[in-house]
Specification:
With 141 residues, the protein is α+β, with helices and mostly antiparallel strands. It contains 5 helices and 3 strands, in the order H-E-E-E-H-H-H-H. Strands 1-2-3 form a 3-stranded antiparallel β-sheet, with helices on one face.
């Protein structure tokens, strides 16, 4: 028997709330939900300085949002040094963070770091969150 529309809606709302919680845990900007084309969407900043991150799956969106800002100082990852010997820190802001872009991305893109920030175990982190929807030949017909 097919799943009722109410069960589908409950599942979608639960998925939306879980992704919103994960994005808040990793300082992920404002969660905007899902666009009509199926892309998941989060916005950083406001006005002319706004940056939108789009991803095919909620898991990919959480991982991209996790590495957008430094977990230590909160500044954008792009403002950090490219290499350890480079002298350029977060531009326009006095920042004492010693991490480089590569170090931030390597640390914050792991499931363990995201799970620690969200207060969950690695096994339950993305449970209940669907991956990208792929239509098969049977579903299109």
């Amino acid at each position: 028997m097919a799943e009722s529309i109410w069960h589908q809606l409950d599942r979608m709302v639960a998925e939306y709330l879980k992704v919103k919680t994960l994005l808040r845990a990793v300082r992920g900007g404002r969660f905007r939900g899902r666009k009509p084309n199926g892309k998941w969407w989060v916005r950083f900043g406001s006005g002319r300085m706004a940056v939108d991150l789009l991803a095919d799956s909620p898991e990919e969106l959480v991982r991209r949002a996790a590495v957008y800002r430094c977990g230590e100082c909160g500044h954008k990852t792009q403002g950090h040094r490219l290499k350890a010997k480079d002298e350029v820190f977060c531009p326009g802001v006095t920042c004492t963070c010693e991490a480089t872009q590569a170090q931030i991305i390597a640390k914050q893109s792991t499931t363990a770091w995201i799970a620690e920030r969200a207060g969950m175990t690695e096994r339950e982190l993305f449970r209940g969150v669907r991956g990208p929807e792929v239509q098969t030949e049977d579903a299109r017909a």
